[in-house]
Write a structure and sequence with these properties.
Number of helices: 12
Helix content: 25-40%
Number of domains: 2
Shape: globular
Radius of gyration: 24 Å
Distance between the termini: 46 Å
Length: 460
């Protein structure tokens, strides 16, 4: 039986950066799909006129302004001004909700305000029969994540809490699961018997820009490893889900996270690009990492003994996210060749476009039985045609939680990285536009080398 849809959308942080860059464009997209419920923006300084002006500016700079859809958005838009610490703000919201029976509250605000807003919603009666959407990070470590979940459950049942990791809404990430399980040729070889190693690289060619203060409170491990990278890893390595129950996908991911061995200091190399300390908002002498490489082990029958390497960083040579699954060579080389280690692989590019390729050896023309490595591209598509926030907000309003993080998985992901948070390992400097500190190559050792993503304009 389908869950009832929400009848009002409330979003806190209506004048914030996330609303400006992501939410207003996504709302216009939802309106094009037929979305037609009141939208209430809550902020400290956002009058209705200011929100309308902000929405237009957002769509002109971060979307594709559609006059008809924009006009409908303006007609649906409402505004509540007030301090999140003031109970009167929630009373005004209660009045604005009117006869709404199933509101969706989207907390596009700093995580430090989650608890205060949840309390305000509950005490004013705005939480009754409501859903709540939270932005990552969900805590700063395992203990704080557990405390946050404990408090949220005082006001909302787990099935009404939607934790957004926007990577789960990306078409390429969903494509990993589909490609694995919809094609029978992959599953028989997707295990420790045939896979030599797995690498995941998330490279960004920019720094922290105007997010210095936020980033200095997070760092690469909290910002992308604990959430995005582990979610990609789960899609790559989880067992097939069973049945039509959408919870079964989240069940299998939780089982996979349980099997990951918690990371220790010896499993990580942290780096910081030269120039980070001069970014506005970064504290003097900060030891926050802008690059991290980790070695992950999954302790189950499918993946035991297969090394998995993850790295991500700012100010790398270009922006791209790729997965490289390296297959084992045959027990002997039939034609007596010296074959490069990386000659049999599957490459999955997640951004900026979607590419799935296979590395093979083929015979060179001529009499000799000698070969060369080639890469066959199965598919190349443009990146998301639907923005992730549009997909995720639509799912939350429909009551579909498949693409949202569940409490047990969030805590299991924090369990994986808890032992490497903070300044527990050395911090190595690296030059901007390089692939991070040299020490990352020592981490991968004989299982290397690191396989750099193809430049976005490159073709196999």
């Amino acid at each position: 039986m389908a869950a009832p849809s929400s009848d009002t959308l409330v979003f806190f942080g209506a004048t914030g950066d996330l609303a400006y860059k992501q939410i207003f464009p996504s709302l216009q997209g939802l309106i094009r799909e037929g979305f037609n419920i009141p939208i209430i923006g809550v902020s400290l300084d956002g009058s209705l006129d200011k929100l309308k002006e902000r929405a237009r500016d957002s769509l002109e700079h971060h979307g594709d302004l559609d006059q008809d859809a924009f006009q409908k958005l303006i007609e649906l838009l409402r505004a509540v001004q007030g301090d999140y610490n003031d109970p009167a703000t929630y009373q005004k919201l209660r009045q604005e909700l009117g006869n709404a029976e199933r509101p969706l509250h989207y907390l596009a605000i700093h995580p430090s305000m989650f608890v205060k807003v949840a309390e305000g919603l509950a005490e004013s009666g705005c939480a009754a029969n409501a859903r709540v959407v939270l932005e990552k990070p969900f805590g700063r470590d395992l203990a704080s994540a557990q405390e946050l979940n404990k408090i949220l459950h005082q006001y909302f049942p787990e099935e009404s809490i939607y934790r957004i990791d926007h990577y789960l809404g990306k078409e390429p990430v969903q494509n990993i699961l589909y490609t694995r399980f919809a094609n029978p040729i992959f599953e028989p070889i997707w295990n420790r018997h045939y896979v030599r190693s797995i690498q995941i690289t998330m490279a960004e060619d920019f720094g922290v820009e105007d997010r210095g203060k936020f980033y200095d409170e997070a760092g690469a491990i909290r910002d992308v490893v604990q959430n995005h990278m582990l979610q990609i890893l789960a899609s790559l390595t989880m067992a097939p889900h069973t049945g039509d129950d959408l919870e079964s996908i989240r069940d299998e991911k939780a089982r996979l996270f349980k099997a990951i061995t918690p990371l220790a200091p010896g499993d990580v190399v942290r780096g910081q690009f030269d120039g980070y300390l001069s970014v506005p908002g970064v504290s003097h002498g900060s030891t926050v990492e802008t690059f991290v490489a980790v070695k992950v082990a999954i302790d189950n029958w499918r993946w035991a003994g297969v090394p998995i390497f993850i790295r991500c960083g700012k100010q790398l040579p270009f922006t791209s996210t790729e997965v490289m699954v390296e297959f084992k060579r045959p027990p002997r080389e039939t034609f007596g060749e010296i074959v490069p280690v990386l000659s049999s692989h599957m490459r999955i590019r997640i951004s900026p476009d979607i590419t799935i390729s296979m590395g093979l050896r083929v015979k060179k023309p001529g009499e000799r039985m000698a070969g060369q490595d080639v890469e066959l591209t199965f598919v190349r598509q443009a990146a998301d045609d639907m923005p992730p926030y549009q997909r995720l907000l639509g799912d939350a309003m429909r009551g579909s939680a498949e693409l949202f993080a569940r409490q047990d998985s969030v805590e299991l992901q924090w369990r994986v990285v808890d032992g490497i948070l903070g300044n527990v390992t050395p911090l190595y400097a690296y030059e901007p536009k390089t692939w991070g500190p040299a020490e990352a190559y020592q981490l991968i050792g004989k299982r290397g080398p690191w396989i750099n993503p193809r430049p976005p304009e490159s073709k196999p």
